[in-house]
Here is the input.
Amino acid sequence: MADPSSRRGHRYATPEILRYVDALHASHDGALAAAFEAPEREGMPAIQVGASEGRLLELLARLAGARRAVEVGTLAGYSAIRLARGLGPEGRLWTFENDLRHAAVARARIAAAGLGDRVEIVEGDAAARLSDVVQHGPFDLVFLDADKGRYDLYGRWAAANVRPGGLLLADNSYFFGRLLEPDDSDAAAMRRFHEEAAASFETACVPTPDGLLLGVRRAG
Ligand code: SAH
Ligand code: MG
Here is the structure.
């Protein structure tokens, strides 16, 4: 029988194709461009999601009819702007960031996008501060994109605080290619995250460059 995963070895996307489809489907207006370019301009790590993943987050939020969402890992606010747009005018996003400089840049970018009243940046370690927003749940969508060694913890929080039918999304689910490393405690945490997510959510791992886990919360 054919290996059902074998076609993943093919790489049909050339740089030219990606430029063409991103320009057509995931282009940036002024606010998105400013947030996307902020990390490099401000000397921050440029580790925001790609344009097509950002657009996917926006459309998944809209498709799910999500109104209340949580993001772990704000950086300069690029994915937060995408998500908040997908939530629509009634939506609210709580986004967690432990680097105060990143939070300040994100606050400016999000305000410039006209989303300052819908997006709350929660400063501090997400592991310590997630409990502060539980009162606003249950949530329709949780997006993980911060410290990879604690995805297992964040995934458990999401299982407890996402409504049945709500979405779990997690960037870097291949852990930069290190997911199966045997002697790496962060890789082990990421594998636990995958396994526990599959138990609480209907899951798929979308083969973006570093894997985007998508889960729909099971009823039980
Ligand atoms: N989601 C953003 C990119 C996030 S990069 C985008 O696509 O636009 C990861 C961010 O998580 C960094 O800004 C980093 O400072 C932050 N971070 C790392 N560990 C954290 C923690 N324990 N709590 C809160 N934020 C954390
Ligand atoms: Mg990421």
Remarks:
- Residues 47-49, 73-75, 78-79, 96-99, 102, 125-127, 145-147 surround S-adenosyl-L-homocysteine (ligand 1) (CB under 6 Å).
- The mean pLDDT is 96.
